[in-house]
């Protein structure tokens, strides 16, 4: 089970890095509003996938 938590933490950290980098670029005006929203939605989807995967792994472990 520890591999699931390690990978989950890796994905969480990666999503946070993507989000931070994205916000910096948005603040500099590098993206259009639609591009910024789409990218943000993709990061949220990544976080949801991570959460669901972790929940499934926990459910199957018991």
Helix content: over 70%
- Uncertain segments are none
User: What number is the mean pLDDT?
Assistant: 88
Number of helices: 2
Q: How much beta, percentage-wise?
A: under 5%
Derived from helix and strand composition plus strand pairing, the structural class reads mainly alpha
- Biggest beta sheet attributes: none
Run of helices and strands: HH
Termini separation: 11 Å
Number-wise, the strands total 0
What do you see in this structure?
Helices cover 89% and strands 0% of the residues. The protein has one domain (2-61). The N and C termini lie close together (11 Å). The chain has two helices and no strands. It is elongated and about 50 Å long.
What is the fold's blueprint, element by element?
Layout: H1 2-27, H2 33-61
Helix pairs in contact: 1-2
In brief, what are we looking at here?
The protein is mainly α and 62 residues long.
Descriptive key words:
about 0% strand, mainly alpha
